[in-house]
Amino acid sequence: MVPRLTVRELRQLGATGQLRTTFPFAALVQQPPDELRRRAALQQPKTVVLAGKPQLARHALALVLGFDAMVAWPVGGGADRIETIGRLEDNDVIVEDPSVSSHHAEFTWQSGPQVIAIRDLGSTNGTFINGAQVGDQFAILTDGEVLSLGDAAFVFVTIDSLEGLLRMGGA
């Protein structure tokens, strides 16, 4: 399981020079779900089906205005690995949101030019990059793109961008 860190914890890592050790390449940054959604996700045996997709502009605005309330997961830490993301605890990245499937998607990255890609694992509500649906073939994520799993949205950022966001917030 990949550790989830708050922005406060990220700032502490930056202050001690350990940010790049914990986040060697990139991060998924998510606004945490509200307490009601989090509790529903933990008690829900099935995925909650959504009527529509999240709006890209809403997530971009949330990143700018609500960065200090967000959490992040390091991704891309090892060469030629695959990690899963979903609601159940046996995933590498656990997302406590009822619209996220038990085993929603998987990441892969290759050594050399650091490339991270994601594919959907037949989830109920789909996987999207900037609003475009990702199927069962791997799609490459680039810095600043919005990744949506159901109604849970993340911004994929490289370590350089993450450091910049932390500096802007007065780290």
Question: What is the end-to-end distance?
Answer: 27 Å
User: DSSP strand (E) fraction?
Assistant: 25-35%
Radius of gyration (CA) equals: 15 Å
Q: Please state the average pLDDT score.
A: 78
Low-confidence stretches: 51-57
**Major beta sheet, strand line-up:** 1-3-2-12-11-8-9
Order of H and E elements: EHHEHHEEEEEEEEEEH
Structural class designation: alpha+beta
Please give the share of residues in helix: 10-25%
Strand segment count: 12
* Major pleated sheet: 7 strands, antiparallel
Helix run count: 5
Coarse shape: globular
Notes on the protein architecture:
There is one protein chain. The two termini are 27 Å apart. The protein has a seven-stranded antiparallel sheet. The chain is α+β, with helices and mostly antiparallel strands. It is 25% helix and 30% strand. The relative contact order is 0.22. The chain is globular and about 40 Å long. A hairpin with a 2-residue loop joins strand 11 and strand 12 (152-158).
